[in-house]
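Lecture 7 notes: from sequence to structure.

We start with a single chain of 54 residues. Read the sequence below before looking at the structure.
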Amino acid sequence: MVSWFFWLAMVITVIFFILVMILFVCQWIIYYRVEQTMLHYDEQIYSNEKGDDD
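Now the structure, written as tokens:
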């Protein structure tokens, strides 16, 4: 019986670990895309402001 609970706990732990890794990668991708969007947006805004002043 103890052996069965041990393996159940191991399976739950491994599933939890895999889900945490998947969520970490998803968060990393979302952060990267938001950062690229903001950099592009800032670059576009600053280039438009400089073009208006000339």
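The chain is about 95% helix and 0% strand. Keep this in mind for problem set 3.
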